[in-house]
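Example 3.2
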Amino acid sequence: MPVQVLTQHNDNARTGANLAESILTPDAVATPGRFGKLFERQVEGQVYAQPLYVPNVTFPQGQRNAVYVATMRNHVYAFDADDPQASAPLWEKRPEDLGPFVPLPDPGIGPQAPPGQPPAYRDIADAFGIVSTPVISLEHNVVYVVALTKQGGQYQHRLHALDLADGSEKLGGPVVIQGSVPGPGAGSAGGQIAFTSNLQNQRPGLLLSGGTLYAAFASYGDAGPYHGWVFGFDAQTLQRRPRIHNTTRFGERGGIWMAGQGPAGDPAGAVYCLTGNGTFSEAGLAVIDKVTLPETAIAGPALADCGGSALGIAWMGPDQRLNFAQSATGSGSAFTGKVTLPEVSIDGPALAFGNGKVFLAWTGTDTPHHLSVMSSTDLNVFGSKVTLGETANQGPALAFGNGKLFLAWTGTDKRLRVSSSADGITFAPAATLAHTSSAAPALLFANGRLFLAWRGTDAARHLNVVDSADGVSFANKVKLPDTSGFRPALASLAGLYLSWTGDPGRNINVRTGGTPATLANHQAFADSSQASPALVAFKGALRLGWAGTDVPAHLNLATLAPQDEPCLGDSFVKLSADLSLADWFSPWNTQLLNLVDADLGSGGILVLPGTSLLVGGGKEGKLYLLDTAHLGHFCATCHDPAGDTQIVQWFQASGIKNGNLPPLPGTHHIHGSPVFWKSRNGGARIYVWPEADWLRAYRFNGSTFDPGPVDISDVTTPPNSMPGAMLSISAQGDQDGTGVIWACHPIRDNANQQVVDGMVQAIDAGNLKRVLWQSTTDPADQIGKLAKFTAPTVASGKVYVATFSGKLCVYGLRP
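Structure, written as tokens:
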């Protein structure tokens, strides 16, 4: 049967393999002067989509082998795939047919530069139109494409089904892609998140599986608010399936772009995606209604429920002066009555409310740092200041209960101390505990007991909790597995909540449970803090406050709300055919990946043929091998060097030595997925070629990979060569000696945020040190500008290479 390339990377498993190629053998390609450019096809616009190939299509002009090309200027072409003289398209659809494309720069697309400055958005140049690789249905004799349009200031994504033979619209197309999902995440209005076309980039290739067409979305240069979306459409009617999947409906971002690779599908109908940066949190709580205040802080803030009528916040400003403000709003988004006090502190202050007063405590800048307390009855004027004889090197903690104000601190000898007062002026002698800390503690009075939490002085700085009935004798110590460089925070709302700033990455974490001993439900959020967080129950909800890691450190306030499914930034996502969430995995350092823009979703997913396993990875250069029956979720206690131990395997696949040669300079990100081939004697292998790295082959034994490469090239992609190489592989079945790796990558420059010269080369898949051919050897073979993230298409003795130079290059054996 003649080969067909109907979808991105050849099949729904995304193997990138054409295993019916008998013409382009390694020896034939390597013969000097035999292989090279045969002809070009001119197109209008840059080509991000992989060309698709269908043999023996009956056109009005007669039967032809056809190659289909879609461009960013909303042109779709059907070309004769073989005849060098047949330069005119067999048919062409233009913006007049598909809708006007979006010229760049555009005020509604991507990050915007200040007036008079060069465009801020440069990830894509020239125009936005058809970004993703289309997919072809031979059953319905159509090619499906998604085009972004702009008419009358309105942006829309439109799904078209174009007849393979004449390009006419079929199946009732086009249809506008639109919809919403319930959730309080970024951009939510009235409890719904609406899909917004000028914020959502339809970059991943389309997937056709089980009668459903799937389209996934990311963003335009992280301009928000955006999410990862997946829509499904009936392949015969184009009617949208009822369920829409949003990866972060309780958070933000989590875009699906995968360097243009399409979502993968398995024989059972499941859909697999990789997400990029964004909120990661397991089902339980979500950070919503986040507000960034104009105020900045040194150290963490303090929060207090001021009698149910107002939420109070106190913080130490950049000048070390103490500040207090109040809000009666549910989210704490509008604070009024700011009071800047003359008092100065060495650390964040503490707040508590009781007996009609708000109490403020701090550690002074005097030597030796005495503790002080003052109060206010109107949340405006503070007085009744008392300076205690006690001293500390960190801030104190406050709580009110049973008619008493409790004060806790870490003494200069690192011993924890607790005192109490009936009026906030006269304090009882301190109870000195045996426990030690090198940070400030946290204090909470709930259900008739006083809870004390602190960061230990052990090497790992584990968090600890004890409780007391009287504030003098403490017991029931619980040592948690979590660590922090700062004080924790405690709150109570139908249970106990402990929050802290984690190590590493400074992400905000929360544990929940009925008692300290049952603080088992752990979540880590995408938001990060430069110090300790604050936590309080107010108006029936949990309020979270923190000083951000931005410069300067702005105060942030948010609500912790219940969520019924996880937010899956930087995650593998498995969806059922109806787009319900079936399973997921996120690495142990997912929060750090988000923080440093090392998104997992720069790569794609390869479903390993004949197995229940999949493999994929991203900017960190790790490849993860997962069981599709149990992806692995999240391991909060996992860390390198062991890494994620709940999955089948992971290994470092890029940025490692080549024999005695050290790693190359630059980043070693993986974009797109590896390609797969199993030969008779060589066995099953995947091939991956990251940025600034060598092409590597890893052997697969049917259950795991050998973590060291079984083969490695002598040639490399250039330093700072984002995106590395986009790969395809051809072979004659499993016959040894027939495999060829086809790779497109920059010649010398970084393709990130600029258009650069590119090349295509062929390498023997059975011996990666054998370069068969390079387009840079003969000037007549040059491709021009690299089509970033676009793999070459190999079919029936020819190689079709998309470009950003307004042309399709076609290579093959010369007569």
